[in-house]
């Protein structure tokens, strides 16, 4: 087991060098000394032991005042409790996530007080990021324990809702800072906004994300330029903003944000690219009727598995295959919140059925097509007997195609015909 004293030495070194990112690593469960921290003291002796370890020279260095030093002792005392709950809680069995959340909540409040009341500088913002990220993750684990204990009750996210309130305070502290930009905590607003978005998505309270967006827009003139923020802050913010528009069926706006997120994404980050494309692909299908090539999908195995069957069926106008592929992946598509958008792709699939039927006509004048001809085409492509395809439903489908701009022409009802435009009667994605 790694020596827990490395935690405190790392704190002193990072604080002395004013390296917030290094200090933040000390306060994460992935630090190699996190487990040993649980054995470094007892709950009764923690404050005395932590003070001795943090400031062995009996002064406040690298801090400047006793108040500043005491604030960090409180933070590490709560961090010790987090480690103790995870490593030694439950009577020594560990993984006491409820106790861990209580301690993590206390730790977060100490950090918030440091920024709000003690004037912590903005180089410590990575500490705020790490603490709020850990708070959210531990809250989810604690809620899973509560749900498992009472399976007969509706699922609740009690701890995560509490965490959301603390993260919102952190976001407000960053957004409301009045220091000069070079010293401002406003540099943390987009990172904190992303944590808020993740939390609200998990709580299925996506409408609350718009409050965060409104708050940012209201302060936009006082914020640094968006392009000046780190790419690691911008990409997640663009992704979640695109997601919010996507779920509102505002596909043009969603495509703009998701496309920007994809372009800014690190070329080696296949996982993040996959997350973005999971929604950008159906978004472009809905807004532009655009379908990625199979070669493109093969670069992302998860997307190829999830989407290729549906998209191939759309492209080739195979209604039966489309319905089967959509049904086979329904659970996963619903979970990813893309099922309803992909389901709209059936219209494009149907358009391609009609176009293929039209192209295969053996007649000189292809501007006049009997509705019965399209009825037969739909039956063949859907694997349905012709007699089971209602002619009136086909006429209704054709009317909708024309109304939605997928066909150019009009219905000659009395003659049972569709009169198509002589030029590009099926605008949109080429076959």
TrEMBL record:
<feature type="domain" description="PCI">
    <location>
        <begin position="235"/>
        <end position="425"/>
    </location>
</feature>
<dbReference type="Pfam" id="PF01399">
    <property type="entry name" value="PCI"/>
</dbReference>
<dbReference type="GO" id="GO:0003723">
    <property type="term" value="F:RNA binding"/>
</dbReference>
<comment type="similarity">
    <text>Belongs to the CSN12 family.</text>
</comment>
<protein>
    <recommendedName>
        <fullName>PCI domain-containing protein</fullName>
    </recommendedName>
</protein>
<dbReference type="GO" id="GO:0003690">
    <property type="term" value="F:double-stranded DNA binding"/>
</dbReference>
<dbReference type="InterPro" id="IPR000717">
    <property type="entry name" value="PCI_dom"/>
</dbReference>
<dbReference type="InterPro" id="IPR036388">
    <property type="entry name" value="WH-like_DNA-bd_sf"/>
</dbReference>
<dbReference type="InterPro" id="IPR045114">
    <property type="entry name" value="Csn12-like"/>
</dbReference>
């Amino acid at each position: 087991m790694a020596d827990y004293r490395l935690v405190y030495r790392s704190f002193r070194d990072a604080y002395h060098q004013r390296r917030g990112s290094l200090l933040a690593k000390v306060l994460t469960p992935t630090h190699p000394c996190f487990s040993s921290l649980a054995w470094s003291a007892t709950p009764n002796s923690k404050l005395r032991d932590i003070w001795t370890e943090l400031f062995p020279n009996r002064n406040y260095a690298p801090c400047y005042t006793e108040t500043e030093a005491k604030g960090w002792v409180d933070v590490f005392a709560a961090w010790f409790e987090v480690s103790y709950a995870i490593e030694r809680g439950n009577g020594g069995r560990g993984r006491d996530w409820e106790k861990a959340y209580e301690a993590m909540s206390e730790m977060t409040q100490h950090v918030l007080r440091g920024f709000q009341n003690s004037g912590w500088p903005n180089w410590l913002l990575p500490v705020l990021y790490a603490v709020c990220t850990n708070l959210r993750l531990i809250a989810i684990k604690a809620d899973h324990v509560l749900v498992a204990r009472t399976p007969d009750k509706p699922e609740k996210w009690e701890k995560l809702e509490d965490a959301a309130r603390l993260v919102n305070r952190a976001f407000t502290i960053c957004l409301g800072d009045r220091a000069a930009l070079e010293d401002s905590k406003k540099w943390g607003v987009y990172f904190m906004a992303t944590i808020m978005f993740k939390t609200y998505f998990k709580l299925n309270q996506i409408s609350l994300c718009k409050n965060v967006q409104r708050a940012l827009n209201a302060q936009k003139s006082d914020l640094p330029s968006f392009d000046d923020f780190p790419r690691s802050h911008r990409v997640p913010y663009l992704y979640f903003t695109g997601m919010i528009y996507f779920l509102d069926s505002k596909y043009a706006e969603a495509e703009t944000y998701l496309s920007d997120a994809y372009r800014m994404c690190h070329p080696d980050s296949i996982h993040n690219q996959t997350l973005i494309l999971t929604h950008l692909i159906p978004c472009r299908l809905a807004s532009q009727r655009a379908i990625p090539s199979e070669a493109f999908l093969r670069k992302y195995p998860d997307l190829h598995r999830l989407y290729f069957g549906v998209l191939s069926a759309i492209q080739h106008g195979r209604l039966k295959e489309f319905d089967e592929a959509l049904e086979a992946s329904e659970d996963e598509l619903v979970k990813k919140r893309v099922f309803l958008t992909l389901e709209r792709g059936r219209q494009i699939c149907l358009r391609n059925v009609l176009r293929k039927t039209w192209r295969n006509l053996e007649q000189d004048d292809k501007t006049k097509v009997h509705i019965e001809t399209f009825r037969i085409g739909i039956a063949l492509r859907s694997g349905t007997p012709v007699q089971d395809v209602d002619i009136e439903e086909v006429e209704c489908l054709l009317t909708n195609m024309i109304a939605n701009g997928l066909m150019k022409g009009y219905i000659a009802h009395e003659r049972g015909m569709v009169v198509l435009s002589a030029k590009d009667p099926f605008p949109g994605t080429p076959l």
